[in-house]
Design a protein that fits this description.
Blueprint lengths: L2 H29 L8 H22 L3 H31 L1 E3 H8 L7 H9 L3 E6 L2 E6 L2 H5 L31 E7 L5 E7 L1 H4 L4 E4 L6 H14 L4 E5 L14 H4 L16 E4 L5 H6 L3 E5 L6 H19 L10 E5 L12 H16 L2 E7 L7 H6 L2 E4 L5 H11 L1 H6 L7 E6 L6 E5 L7
Parallel strand pairs: 6-11, 6-12, 7-9, 7-10, 8-9, 10-11
Antiparallel strand pairs: 1-3, 2-3, 4-5, 4-14, 12-13, 13-14
Helix pairs in contact: 1-2, 11-12
């Protein structure tokens, strides 16, 4: 409704109320033989004048309903239509899919008017529609292309987390002892039981951490590394971003420190023992140390060269352990950041095959590998399945969502785009059903 029409209606209502009060007042005075103008005739003339004035006002306020309708339509056509279309995309983005009745109700419009907002989105390939019974079901056809042009978490999307979210109900048998990684996430992202995992047993079987940049991958990887360092397990990290050097410093982030109590942690941040080097380490020193060895590759910009330096160290480890006995005890954890570089066109195709072989062969010798990657869909399914633990953070990359659907089912893949920062789907092959974890803060500098 237009502004002018609103004002006219308000004025009309006001006039009716004033007139009613005036008539009531005059009736009261007449019953007591009191006259405002001094006589009954004068009061009658005054009443007649006010009636004519009221009729004149009414005529003005209802003069041109057609003009009001035209004004309302012109005001609604452009801005309101655009806003409704944005709302359609927002609701479908949060809900995943909605029936025509649900969507019309959310948009506060008649379901018969829904098509004028939906049809252009269907024609441009943004929204998909399918008929089920007597209604239509709408969903985003390609959310990644339209709403997320690259695989990076956007803080402006935080408002989505306020929407009501029901997580899949799983019967996961959580361990009651081991390393504390975080807390189980319940509906609407509330925190549940603590999540423990004996990493000495599971890290050797391979860990895959994936998700959009900024979603919390490195924090989760650091939590795992911190827990193993507490258990005196040596760590080797290939660092392309210099983020891992902060593992040697105590956490000074006040926001994270304030969250320690939520995870049963004492407010005692600390840095961990370790060293930063520029080239491949001596294997004897690496395997006997109880700290973290960080190979700084931040000055190497070429993808093939970065992959080559990691492959060189893995090859030395393979050669070193070739004639040694197999072991079920975790001797070393290797962290490979930016693992999706191994699938780059700049890198020889044999490189990914070598990484797969290294992961499988080193596992037998007591060496675990943790791959941290923005994308998993480019990895061979056999290699993904070889990683016993999958930690899947928020992403809207369609290729990954399809891969996750094949791995864990559509119910899980629908949760992935809604995950808040610091929350991930956690799937441990030995446990079975996946569940959502809120990761604890780090003791070291994030």
């Amino acid at each position: 409704m237009g502004v002018a029409a609103n004002l006219k209606r308000a004025f009309l209502i006001f006039s009716v109320e004033v007139t009613f009060l005036l008539f009531a007042y005059l009736t009261y005075l007449a019953s007591h033989n009191v006259w405002i103008a001094g006589s009954a005739l004068a009061d009658a003339l005054l009443l007649g004048f006010l009636s004519v004035l009221f009729a004149f006002d009414y005529a003005i306020t209802s003069k041109s309903p057609q003009e009001d309708a035209t004004e309302t339509e012109s005001l609604d056509q452009t801005p309101s239509s655009g806003t409704k279309r944005e709302q359609v995309l927002k609701y479908l983005k949060v809900l995943g899919k909605a029936s025509s009745g649900q969507l019309a109700s959310l948009l506060e419009i008649d379901v018969r008017n829904l098509s004028k907002f939906i049809n252009p989105l269907i024609q441009t390939g943004i929204v998909a529609a399918r008929k089920e019974g007597k209604t239509f079901i709408y969903s985003l056809r390609d959310a990644h292309t339209y709403l997320h042009t690259h695989n990076r978490h956007n803080l402006s999307e935080e408002t989505e987390y306020a929407a009501h979210v029901e997580l899949p109900k799983r019967q996961a048998k959580l361990s009651k002892e081991g390393n504390m990684l975080g807390r189980l996430a319940l509906d609407d992202w509330k925190l549940g039981d603590f999540v423990y995992l004996p990493l000495r047993k599971h890290a050797q079987k391979g860990i895959l951490v994936s998700g959009a940049s900024g979603a919390g991958k490195t924090i989760a990887a650091k939590v795992i590394v911190e827990e193993l360092l507490e258990d005196k397990i040596p760590i080797l990290v290939f660092d392309y971003t210099s983020q891992w050097e902060r593992l040697l410093e105590r956490n000074s982030n006040e926001e994270m420190l304030d969250r320690y109590s939520e995870f049963g942690m004492r407010r005692s941040p600390k840095g961990f023992e370790g060293r930063v080097i520029q080239s491949a380490p001596q294997l004897e020193d690496l395997l006997t140390s109880q700290g973290v060895t960080i190979i700084d590759l931040s000055g190497t910009y070429d993808s093939a060269e970065r992959v080559g330096k990691v492959a060189e160290t893995l090859d030395k480890l393979l050669e070193y352990f070739q004639f040694q006995e197999d072991s079920d005890n975790l001797r070393l954890l290797i962290v490979v950041e930016e693992a999706h570089l191994w699938t780059s066109k700049e890198v020889p195709k044999d490189a990914l095959r070598f990484l797969d072989s290294a992961v499988r062969l080193l596992r037998k010798k007591g060496i675990g590998v943790m791959l941290v990657s923005q994308k998993i869909s480019d990895f061979d399914p056999a290699m993904r399945s070889a990683m016993n633990t999958s930690i899947l953070f928020r992403t809207k990359y369609e290729g990954d969502l399809r891969a996750i659907t094949r791995m864990l089912g559509s119910e899980v893949s629908e949760v992935i785009p809604k995950l808040p920062v610091g929350y991930s789907v956690f799937h441990l092959a030995d446990v079975g059903d996946p569940f959502v974890v809120a990761w604890r803060p780090t003791y070291s500098q994030p």
